[in-house]
Design goal:
2 copies of one chain form a homodimer. Chain A is α+β, with helices and mostly antiparallel strands. Chain A contains 3 helices and 12 strands.
Chain lengths: 182, 182
Amino acid sequence: MEKWKIIKTDVALDNKWCTVHKDIVELPSGKIIDDYFVNIRPDVVLIFPVTADGKVIMVQQYKHGAKEVLLEFPGGVFDPTDESAEAAALRELREETGYSSADVVPLTVVYDNPTKDTNKMYFFLARNAEKATDTEFDHTEDIETLEIPLAEIHGLIKEQKIRVTGSIALYYMALMALGSGV
Amino acid sequence: MEKWKIIKTDVALDNKWCTVHKDIVELPSGKIIDDYFVNIRPDVVLIFPVTADGKVIMVQQYKHGAKEVLLEFPGGVFDPTDESAEAAALRELREETGYSSADVVPLTVVYDNPTKDTNKMYFFLARNAEKATDTEFDHTEDIETLEIPLAEIHGLIKEQKIRVTGSIALYYMALMALGSGV
């Protein structure tokens, strides 16, 4: 199965917070599409922090795309030219929750919306997470940190209290890595 | 935890395939952000089709956001004013794979990227899926249908052969619904 050939890329929207390209592409069939829009987005980290006594650290905050307050795992964007994904995951964990961990392992690298967006999402598991510092929210953040027993996460997903694809996928990957017999 | 107040919405990009709003918002703290970009995206369905003999129907196709060929569950966008999510899921399943099912149940409704995008994603499980018709690809689609034994999906996720958050999350939700003891 072949990739599409990019004939020309126009910048449809060019802003620090939102960059959109309009590509003219040629499909393997020879068909030309002259307006395929792609959102150029920075890569993202998402981390599953669990304490030595089995509490999972989650964050609750308002998300302005969905216009709802949502419960997710800590994470955020990073610049792959500036820092490693692991460093970014630990930085986001510290800034959003004040927790840290000396026991972080990468789980997988996935896409969130490969149809429209360029960015990857890096998943990490942080065992033995501990409260280390105060939180440092950036200028748009107002975040509530919750400590939730690992055994309750499944129920929260079932009851649609956790309802973001990245966090559900990360929980499943973390469970596998923790050897919980999924 | 309060929502943000929208003071003004400007249309930053207005196209049939890509609509971006630039909101001026007031945070609960009183702080004003004058350039919060939101992608206005149509809602999406994703369906987990499994045959009577335990084969899962998946689709493999090139995705121009990621610039990669990816293995996912069937799905696509729909217009909530035109059809139900379930009708859309069955339509996408039929068009992309030629399979249908008389035994479809809704699993959950989630967000894919609640920070930047407006759209929800509706998850369905289709038991007793059967090949019913020929495929009907739309003008950008070139899709390979695969029948994969249910027991092999876990390994495909572990080996990063399945690596899209929506598909991983849907697999987990479908396993729960199928009573596979996650």
